[in-house]
Amino acid sequence: MKKMMHIRMGLTILMALTLLVLAACSNSSKAAVADTKTRVGIVLTEVGLGDRSFNDAAFNGLVKARDEKSIVFDYREPSKDLTAEAAFEEFSKEKFDLIIGLSNTVLTDMEKAAAKYPDQQFLLIDSQSALPNIASISFRAEEGSYLAGIIAGMASKENHVGFLGGMEIPALKDFEQGFKQGVLAVNPEAAVEAVYAGDFGNADLGKQLAQKMIQEQNVDVIYVAAGLTGVGALAEIQAQGKYAIGVDTDQFFLAEKAILTSMLKNIDVSIYNAVNSFIENKHTFPKKEIVEGLAENAVGLTGLHNITLSEEQQKTFDDLKTKISSGQTKITLNP
Predict the structure, then answer these.
(1) Which pTM does this prediction carry?
(2) At 10, is the pLDDT very low, low, confident or very high (cuts 50, 70, 90)?
(3) What would the DSSP string read from start to end of 89-107?
């Protein structure tokens, strides 16, 4: 009897050990799979997720790459408690394969980390750096903004349109200049007012600026490129019964009675493609600087709302778009 009990006890212990070994093997297998995935970190702008524009679009590009390709990713939202520099430092210490930063506003902080970790690969969106370990994606956003200007010039009844930008940085100055030249291409008598909020994350400020442009400057179409600040502006433009043009993503749902179109800067597509290229090229980029525009379908407009172009206007729009896309017409950008 005692012998049978010893046998049963031995079998129980053996089974328990077997299960532990199998579990350990399973965990090791999962860890091995995780180790083979490319690790990507992204540092957003201070506005963070929920801007329904720049940050959200970039984030969605990585979500798609995560869901369809062999990557895992994490993100940081700079704040009072976490600077962009500290966020880049964190990802670098954790040895992420690729660290992405958004816009010219994080350039200085990224360069500090890149200089400290020369073997770490970085990718900067909407700006460029001379450092060898910082690749970049820039957009000829002035081309898409030129198209937005054409629509604004055709839609304006007052011959007075506006541009409302977030911060006066080089990328947005390109937006402004492309927009102005598009307006004047179809409406040479129009005046174009440009206002910068100095903030991408203040919806109330956007509302105030839009109201001022409409009531004091008699602007009836405003191109808004201001992140969360722009969300407030769009709501106010609609409340005032005027027209707006959105940016980065299709913002029609934010002001359905006001939005004529949105200038798409396909950041999600460009980041998705860049990550795949990084993986395919064994964690390097074939080109240090990637610049994309209309010809690459990196920028463009959504469908039109609240406006119908005449046959003549549509022909004018198509002809001007072809000339910009082919390089026949050049947009002048002042430094």
Answers:
(1) 0.78
(2) low
(3) HHHHHTT-SEEEEESGGGH
